[in-house]
Specification:
373 residues, alpha/beta, Rossmann fold, 6-stranded parallel β-sheet, 15 helices, 38% helix, 18% strand, elongated, binds 3-phosphoglyceric acid, Phosphoglycerate kinase, phosphoglycerate kinase activity, kinase
């Protein structure tokens, strides 16, 4: 029986140690089932990280057993030095990040892992921006291919490299440094780039608008970007003034008081985005418009609802954004929901990922080992 090492991404949100959203696990099922139907024994490699800790994957194992209706073998703890035999057709390695060699991209660790299988499949697009052993070294050690989810991700996201117009790009959330390369890349191909969320506050403040006491990142945004007519910023906001929620127009700036906290986009901003979305042929969205975890969900939900009325090809991604859309049960409003967070951003900015480059290469070390036999 062929043994397939299948890299999946089970980096799911946890609540009190329980899996709070099984989206990524479900998204891996088609590739797992495909290899089972082909008669393979499937060894799943996955990671999970929460606040710098690497929890065990027992929960993911139980979830998987329920979803597949099969018993799933489990390699508890660190990877043993030699492969073990399992009767189960699906076997899950415990959190691969329990092994320091994974993040260190250590070749001898990768060789120990590769010894478990004859073939490698990467279906963890959303972890493929990491130069980790199970992502970039296994393809050198084993013949390989990409899984279905991986292919769907690259196929759908690549469409934005040659978008139909008008193309509306919506960016929210935080972390300027991860989103700035996207703004540079899409400034010429997008017809409008809306910047909202915490990122929007950083832009507003750089432009000289008042944002009260809202947190902003200490970055210098170029004048070229700030004054570009394609870059749109929120027109109004839901803010917290003392303990009161208020909807306030951002112009005139005197509307904003010291101590105000801008936590969400307001209705006029959503209306502008809805009008643009109605005319758009392509819409790409990453990052929430408000602080959803503090209950400021209005902008994110209203935008997801408005996008449902647009006939554009619509793709959304980013961990918090997708979690919010799933909570609102508005998945149907999108043509594709990316499992990627950082990987989606990096792929869009660079057109490739370390995991993609690794899959495109030959299994060089595997061939060398064969020659020696
Ligand atoms: C993700 O959640 O974006 C991927 O699983 C990568 O996780 P990481 O940021 O812990 O490497």
């Amino acid at each position: 029986m062929k043994k397939v090492l299948l890299r999946v991404d089970f980096n799911v949100p946890l609540k009190n140690g329980k899996i709070a959203d099984d989206f990524r696990v479900r998204a891996s099922l088609p590739t797992i089932v495909y290899w089972l139907k082909k008669g393979a024994q499937v060894f799943l490699i996955a990671h999970l990280e929460e606040n710098g800790n690497a929890p065990h994957l027992n929960e993911a194992r139980s979830l998987l057993e329920g979803l597949l209706g099969l018993r799933v073998g489990f390699v508890q703890g660190k990877l043993p030095p030699k492969p073990l035999e399992f009767a189960e057709r699906v076997v899950l390695f415990d959190n691969i990040r329990l092994n320091p060699g994974e993040k260190a991209c250590d070749l001898s660790f990768a060789k120990t892992l590769a010894a478990w299988g004859d073939y490698y499949v990467n279906d963890a697009f959303s972890a493929s921006h990491r130069k980790h052993a199970s992502i970039v070294l296994l393809p050198e050690l084993l013949p390989h291919e990409a899984g279905f989810l991986f292919e769907k991700e690259t196929e759908n996201l690549s469409k934005f490299f040659k978008p139909d117009h008008p193309f509306l790009f919506i960016l929210g959330g935080k972390k300027f440094e991860t989103k700035e390369p996207l703004i540079s890349r899409f400034l010429t191909s997008a017809d409008a780039i809306f910047v909202g969320g915490a990122l929007g506050n950083t832009f507003l403040s750089n432009k000289g608008y008042r944002v009260g006491s809202s947190p902003v990142e200490d970055v210098q945004i170029s004048r070229y970007v700030l004054t570009n007519r394609r870059v749109l910023l929120p027109e109004d906001a839901v803010l917290l003034r003392g303990k009161k929620k208020k909807i306030v127009s951002l112009i005139p700036t005197s509307n904003i008081e010291h101590g105000d906290l801008i936590y969400d986009a307001g209705p006029q901003t959503i209306k502008t985005l809805a009008d643009l979305a109605k005319k758009a042929k392509f819409v790409l969205w990453n990052g929430t418009l408000g602080v959803c975890e503090k209950g400021f969900t209005y902008g994110t939900k209203a935008l997801a609802e408005e996008l449902g009325k647009s006939k554009a090809f619509k793709v959304v991604g980013g961990g918090d954004t997708v979690a919010a859309i799933r909570k609102f049960k508005l998945e149907k409003n999108f043509d594709f929901i990316s499992t990627g967070g950082g990987a989606m951003l990096e792929f869009l900015a660079k057109g490739t990922l370390p995991g993609i480059a690794a899959l495109s290469g030959e299994p060089r070390l595997w061939r060398e080992a064969l020659k020696k036999k």
